[in-house]
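User: Thanks for the earlier help. One more: SEC14-like protein 1. Can you show the sequence and predicted structure together?

Assistant: Of course, both are below.
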Amino acid sequence: LQAYERRFPTCPLIPMFVASDTVNEYKSEDEAIHVIERRCKLDIDAPRLLKKIAGVDYVYFVQKNSLNRRERTLHIEAYNETFSNRVIINEHCCYTVHPDNEDWTCFEQSASLDIKSFFGFESTVEKIAMKQYTSNIKKGKEIIEYYLKQLEEEGITFVPRWTPPVACKLESSTSHTRRPVSPAINIPDSATKEGLNNKEILNTSSSPSEPTAGTPDDKLDADYIKRYLGDLTPMQESCLIRLRQWLQETHKGKIPKDEHILRFLRARDFNIDKAREILCQSLTWRKQHQVDYILDTWNPPQVLQDYYAGGWHHHDKDGRPLYVLRLGQMDTKGLVRALGEEALLRYVLSINEEGLRRCEENTKVFGRPISSWTCLVDLEGLNMRHLWRPGVKALLRIIEVVEANYPETLGRLLILRAPRVFPVLWTLVSPFIDDNTRKKFLIYAGNDYQGPGGLLDYIDKEIIPDFLGGECMCEVPEGGLVPKSLYRTAEELENEDIKLWTETIYQSASVFKGAPHEVLIQIVDASSVITWDFDVCKGDIVFNIFHSKRAPQPPKKDSLGAHSITSPGGNNVQLIDKVWQLGRDYSMVESPLICKEGESVQGSHVTRWPGFYILQWKFHSMPACATTNLPRVDDVLASLQVSSHKCKVMYYTEVIGSEDFRGSMTSLESSHSGFSQLSAATTSSSQSHSSSMISR
């Protein structure tokens, strides 16, 4: 607060902040409450013509700071005095002490803008206001650190907490036992125009405005961490909080639980940037394939229930859920021929989702954090038929997907009764397995698992399966050969796969170099609103919106065969005729937007004219490199022959009548969910309303 107060009456680091005068000030007798109201003079960076038309050189804001030392809160609110009958600006920010950690400062900020009329320059004023607001936020950290350093140079490094006068202590202590929280002043939801500079960033962590799904009542104390997350160093705890806060500010979907975020941090040795990238790519993948709902909405085919030789079986000595897989008894070729890769992959995903659920249950049962499971793989019966090429390809793909989206979920892998053919399979599979995961493998040949250092070191004797010489009946299916009568043709499997890919309101499209994907939207009423939501699943693309008064020719579907593409669900439609000229036959209505792999983009456009609008996703550059050093399956298996000049998007569009759309009457810029980076693009326009919660 002392650093903040040094910005008045003026601040050389904020050129637009010309001067300020105190118009009202109040202090309570015990000095717990201090309210100060200032009239601030601002030189807004606006075109000279606009200032001349408005008839002003400066604008004035009223700022009110309300400090409650007893509750340890600071509320800052502001509103515009100039043009208040034409433009209404309200801003509010609040500093509070985190309820569970007194060393943390919680910071919330919001601002609203309502332009009723402004001499026909409403759109210009809105852009100037948003530009100024964004600029001030970016300078906030620099300004507060400048004054903090100034205080340190003067020898001020500590400010003692307020304590009540002796006469008030008894009354204060009794009143506090009756009410846990009592705000000193009820302040409307607004904030200071220039005040948002200094309140942008503190070198402390910020608290979310809503409880996080990952923590009960957002408890972040030592007991919660030890009970649900395990032993964390201060650095690791800080990484978790910062990454979770970043997700809350930028991710527009379901926020993962703390345990899940921790897995990605551990997989990248708590490097936040790397963990954030793979986590956001995984969140996009979960959204595309609706993985969050797989246990509730998908029933495995009967073939899997009868012939997939795997299942859950009690837990190991550490309390981890135990999954038993009798791979040697499983007919991988028969399962792939009867079901296809997609159904097999989906079944493995459901197993992993069930594993996450069991980890949560065991955490409650055993009273300690359990975030991974143990897998016991019995290779008795493994032979050369298991090395069937399509089956190995399916296995490698499954490993790749699981490694990318379920990191640090495998606590231990016990491989029993490995036959002589096992080294061949291991040579094919091991390059696709992360080094950290490989360290968790324990391989036993023959009956070695029965001796010292064997199975009894990890699993209680009472639950060793009967087929391994134990006394516990194991209900895992015995597998066996899949009857050939259940085999499906390639066409049937392809149709089945497409069905699996399209169980969503989103559509999937392929974008090639020289072959963009385009969607036609016909608008009858001007001022309708086109909205879009899309994820860039692979590669980098450029998103464009065009308008044409005449309808394009019937869409041409690009031949996937020309690109050697066999993956299901992708389509490519081109609408703009090659003889059309930009500016004559059609026009661009939004600036091109470059979208990186892994990003999620939402936006809308208010149409000015009826006619035909074309949304276009165009190839931008070579697909982004994977974040892991592990080779990709598609790079190794030449049979896939996937083109390097291919991008994939998953999109959803909708047209809304203007009367149903509660947004700005100017075009709304696309907003990134920040899946690849937190950038200036990570903002969203809605009712010209902006809010931020920033933490360090």
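User: Great, one quick takeaway?

Assistant: The chain has four domains: 1-154, 222-289, 292-486, 505-552+572-621+645-663.
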